[in-house]
Amino acid sequence: MEAVTPPRLPLPALLAGLVICAAAAGGAWWWLHAPQSSQVEIPVPPEPPRLTDSAEYERCLSLLREDSDAAMAYAEEWAGQGGGEGARHCSALAMIGLGAPERAAEQLERIARDSQASAAARAAVLGQAGQAWMMAGDAARAYGATTMALTMEPQDTDLMTDRAVALAAMRRYSEALQELDNVLRLDPDRVEAIVFRASALRNLERVEDAMRAIQQALTAAPDNPEALLERGILHQLRGEEGAAREDWERVISVAPETPAAELAQQNLALNEAGLPQR
User: Fold this and answer.
1) How far is CA 21 from the centre of its chain?
2) Could you report the per-residue pLDDT of 107-156, keeping only the tens digit for each?
3) What is the DSSP letter of 212?
4) Measured between alpha carbons, how far is residue 264 from residues 22, 23, 81, 249, 259 in Å?
5) Which overall architecture, per CATH, does domain 1-171 show?
6) What angle do CA 145, 61, 66 make, to 5 degrees?
7) Lowest CB count within 10 Å: 31, 119, 150, 182, which one?
């Protein structure tokens, strides 16, 4: 049976992990300061591609969407019945939901190393390992995992974007910017990468270039909460407090109960108190 590529961790899960990196990175990226969500979104897509294809795997993935404990129990039972890498992969994803991203990352790396699946599938598993390392607060290991993945799939823009995030978390902003420029050469309309690029430019103290980038993102996606949050920060840096408040209030309106909204609320409070924004 031909292996299929496993799911990439979704951005909300990655953002939650980046919160943990803030202490080590000193606030390298604007979203590092977002409050940690009490719930971690498990990287289960509604459809393939996935690492393997079986009824047991589908059952395990469906459990992941609802109950990480149940998914782990199922994966362990399935593994005892010869479930192989499908069972190990499901259990690694369950570890993320159970608050053990470091163990998950290590297991995902082992799966990628030992698997006989295609290069694309193994690269995707390494990409998941990289994102799990970010959740564990280890940007250096995340960088290593995504770099290894990119040796297998050098044009994968998901992996390139994830490596840029790891670089930024290590305060290697110039390298992150170069990586994001490469992403946008391949996928010019990728709003996520444009927002990340604006953040890198801001951290390089290129505020006007950052503003041009974020306006490009908001032209494509006017209510993108991360873009609105970033533009608010840029407005604040330019002394445009009213515009900053407007953007942060818009974030709360369009994306309530998200890390972006929580950070926008914090920035509004800091602005009211006359303190620097995050």
Assistant:
1) 12
2) 999 999 999 888 988 998 999 999 999 999 999 999 999 999 999 999 99
3) H
4) 17, 20, 49, 7, 9
5) Alpha Horseshoe (1.25)
6) 110
7) 119
Do the Cβ atoms of 45 and 13 come closer than 8 Å? no
Task: Say how far apart CA 127 and CA 149 lie, in whole Å.
Answer: 6
Those residues whose C-beta lies under 8 Å from the C-beta of residue 21, and which sit 6 or more positions away, are 28, 32, 134, 137, 139, 169
> How many Cα neighbours within 13 Å face the side chain of 58?
6
Pick the CATH number of 189-278 from 3.40.920.10, 1.25.40.10, 3.40.50.300, 2.60.120.260: 1.25.40.10
C-alpha pair distances (Å), 23 with each of 114, 154, 251: 33, 31, 25
pLDDT tens-digit map of 3-50: 344 445 444 434 333 332 322 232 334 343 333 433 455 555 444 446
Q: What single-letter DSSP state applies at residue 198? A: H
Residue ranges of the chain that CATH labels 1.25.40.10: 1-171, 189-278
